[in-house]
Write a structure and sequence with these properties.
The chain is α+β, with helices and mostly antiparallel strands. The protein has 7 helices and 9 strands. The chain has 3 domains: about 40 residues, no CATH class; about 70 residues, no CATH class; about 70 residues, no CATH class. The chain is about 40% helix and about 15% strand. It has a 3-stranded antiparallel β-sheet with strand order 5-6-7. Strand 1 and strand 2 form a beta hairpin. Helix 2 packs across helix 3, helix 4 packs antiparallel against helix 5 and helix 6 packs across helix 7. The chain is elongated, with a radius of gyration of 24 Å. The N and C termini lie far apart (about 80 Å). About 15% of the residues are buried. The chain binds zinc ion (2 copies). One zinc ion binds next to loops.
């Protein structure tokens, strides 16, 4: 009995890149991913950079690169090898460097922007803190209060609760950060003072 062996590129460990022509190795990717790849890693990243840039429009006032395709929660998103990824995260990774578990945060405060130099790397807690600082600045500008920390806006209450929920902050630290008494923080995180979600 003779065995017929068919050439099957999906099982091969190397294949030529459609852009540079050099053969590249399968690496650690699954056979499913391997079937979908057509470029070596370097060319795949370069191709993605172009995909990102070409999906943006430049805001001439702010220099933001505004994502023109689909969004989620205001952030640009795109499909990369069957996975949905946030465009600003991908932009950071491809133009700046790895993010690992961190967030790509916006300096410009424009969620749809994916311009690499408008992004910086930070933790989720820093993201919340950043939101607080920006909320505070807005609070001050709008209300012009002499003591902006004396009372907390709804955003600040939500942010304070989110920080508390991370388990990384003591009530004393949160009290100092917001310029309120520790007892106020206690009441806020235990939902005594304001019902969660209420105005
Ligand atoms: Zn290549
Ligand atoms: Zn921007």
């Amino acid at each position: 009995m003779s065995r017929i062996v068919l050439a099957d590129t999906t099982r091969a460990d190397t294949k030529p890149c459609i852009d540079c022509g050099q053969s590249y190795e399968r690496g650690a990717c699954s056979s499913h991913e391997w079937r979908m790849t057509r470029r070596c890693l370097r060319c795949a990243d370069e191709h993605l950079r172009w995909r990102l840039v070409l999906a943006c429009a430049l805001d001439v006032d702010t220099d933001c690169w505004l994502w023109q395709r689909s969004t989620r929660n205001g952030y640009g998103q795109l499909s990369v090898r069957d996975e949905t990824e946030y465009a600003h995260r991908l932009s950071y990774r491809l133009f700046v460097g790895p993010l690992n578990a961190d967030e790509a945060l916006h300096d410009c405060d424009v969620r749809r922007c994916i311009r690499p130099d408008h992004l910086f790397r930070g933790t989720q807690a820093e993201n919340i803190a950043d939101m607080i600082e920006k909320g505070r600045a807005r609070h001050r500008t709008l209300k012009g209060e002499a003591h902006p920390n004396a009372t907390l806006s709804d955003d600040e209450v939500a942010a304070l609760r989110a920080l508390w929920a991370t388990g990384q902050y003591q009530q004393r630290a949160l009290a100092a950060r917001y310029g309120v008494a520790q007892s106020t923080v206690w009441r806020l995180v235990h939902g005594v003072t304001r019902a969660q979600g209420a105005a």
